[in-house]
Amino acid sequence: MSSHDPSGTSPPHPQTTPARTGGPSVPHSRAAEPGSPAAAGGPEAPADRRRWIALAIVMTAAFMDLVDVTIVNIAIPAIESDLDASFGAIQWITAGYALAFAAGLITGGRLGDIYGRKRLFLIGITGFTLASALCGFALTTEMLVGSRILQGAMAALMVPQVLAIVHATFPAHERGKVFGLFGAIVGLGAVSGPLLGALLTEWDLFGLGWRPIFLINLPVGIAGVILGRIYIAESRAPKALRLDLVGVVLVTTALMMLIYPLTRGRELDWPLWGHVSMLCSPLVLAAFVLYERYKTRKDGSPLVELSLFRVRSFAAGIAVQLTFGVVMGVFFLVWTLYMQIGLGWGALKAGLTGVPFSLAVSVAAGVSVQQLVPRFGRKVLQAGAATMAAGVLLYLWSVDHYGTDISPWQMLPALLLMGAGMGLIVAPLTDAILSEVPREHAGSASGLISTVQQTGTALGLGLVSVVFFGSMPAAVGDGISGHGSADPGSGEAPAAGGGPAGEPDALREMLGRAFGDGFQNSLGWVAGVLGLIFLMMFLLPARPKQHLEGAAAGGGEDSDGDAAGAPEPQLTTSGR
């Protein structure tokens, strides 16, 4: 087997099939043109266009995953109304996905290194498509929650392979352009997700209501499976680490013992077993740390490289990432519930209200990385935290001042401030965390960043029952079923389940006040945590080093053609 052919197959015939990326040079007249990569000893022939088709396939899969999260957020009230879901189930529709995704990310990447990135990508996208079908045809909340957890687990197999396939498929001199395209995809997903979800919910295609937000993945996923088998080249890591399934079980158990009682606690009147479970969660986490130390001594392949936490900037950055994930998990869910159930807005109105926020995030993220961070370093992230906190406080004031008569235009200044602040944080934070990490551990550290972000999001979604529903009167907070609008997409007054018969206006006012109070309480918590994040950022390096970004240019490539330890850009979404 040629060490240069990532697919492990014999080279294709030069006159019939273009050479795969990284394959032997093709004896074609164009391959010897002066100045061409082949003439210069490059890894591929310029006539090979298969890699761009492969790129389109994996980028579409990444886009499908990103959009799926924001689509679900905007359709939550419609799902609640249709399936008569409790608020605990509503939290698990989002938190279950995030938890399964976080728990499987590192293991999914490692499985791809061992058994082949193409193979795991195809398994992941197939499972993701099937889970989407189960979500779309769910008859009960339990079926939907279970399908969402399966969907998150399949995404954990699919998503890590995306950038690994790019590394194995594209030479170093083309990756900058490719990663720029990924950045555009992330921004497009953030903007288009809420709008697409709102439109699909409002249109009520074939009388299916909210279900097309999941079923739309079916044709995309099927096309990805078929084309992926044809155009994606197989690749494996030459020295893949072993699996750490015990570590996965321990850390997932610790998180479940904390998050599940948080989501169900108020609904079940805070039973004793819930308190015991939450108190024991740190003990299981401690057992995880001890096992990871043992695993490191045994075969050097732990799930988490604990030595990374000796690097102060990394430890501080991971803490910031986790805490920021909590903030995002709380805000995006309560924001959706406040607009659509508290204010009675339709899905489209709520989705359009979020567009300025997403645009502000994208613009600020681009400016921060390209212009501000090179000049001001850590101060840019702290300015982002302060700006976002100011936007949250302005939003809190607006909700209190305008009450249930608040309009999207009156929310606009606060949302622009919050979006700009978030953009100043999310884009440069990964580089700040990785700046002092040893090069040989950069890949492990990069994967851990994504895992911690998703874990924080799941924890934040669990806390919604405390900071949002916990501040409501018992008549409302004990469950939102029966309190939602008669048609969440219509903006009509809610049905009078539990309210005074024949008094929809009075019930609407009661719901508006209750959800407004819960939203204000949540915003207060978010502002306080952002203040904590501002202080934690002092532990980040004042001026993040750029040595990791330039690692590829400096040589040291491995047998896959990747710069050793070079970090990959993070496929993240604020809504997850």
TrEMBL record:
Residues 1-45, 480-505, 549-576 are annotated as: Disordered. GO terms for biological process: response to antibiotic. It is a multi-pass membrane protein. Coiled coil: none annotated. The chain crosses the membrane at residues 52-76, 88-108, 120-139, 145-166, 178-200, 212-231, 243-260, 272-291, 311-338, 350-368, 380-399, 411-434, 455-476, 522-540. InterPro entries: MFS, MFS_dom, MFS_trans_sf. Residues 32-45, 484-495 have a biased composition (Low complexity). Signal peptide: none annotated. Pfam families: MFS_1. Residues 54-545 form the Major facilitator superfamily (MFS) profile domain. The keyword Glycoprotein does not apply. It comes from the Bacteria. One of its GO terms (cellular component) is plasma membrane. It is found in: Cell membrane. Keywords: Antibiotic resistance, Membrane, Transmembrane, Transmembrane helix. GO terms for molecular function: transmembrane transporter activity. This is Transmembrane efflux protein. The lineage of its organism: Bacteria, Bacillati, Actinomycetota, Actinomycetes, Kitasatosporales.
